[in-house]
Amino acid sequence: EFFSKAADFKQGCEGVEELFKYELPKDMKGGVYYLKASDYSSPDSIIKFRVRDYHQKQLVSLDYSQESFNPGDYVEGKLTLRSVDDEPVPEGSYFSIQTSAGEQNENIRINSDGFGYFIFTIPRDWKDT
Hints:
By secondary structure, this protein is mainly beta.
């Protein structure tokens, strides 16, 4: 319904000089908005439009120093973080990990290339549940 009204609106504006142009802010919250146009010689025109929330997703991958591990093994790993549009990772980004064996590493820095490195030891008495 909105698109047919928008097409009708655009067709009705042929030959009309563009008086005002507004670009929606990139951080605009999602929701339903109304655009009201008025002037002294004609009735108000109101157009309803919807802005969808979009949260930029990041692609995360984990690489380990070897393919499999046993209890008591020392594990080295690398986290790779990339944005969907391949933009640089924000300065000062950090991540935390917690393993099913109970190991926890917090505030691991991600460098400007999008890599973060972590290490932990698998407990000798750990059993997979």
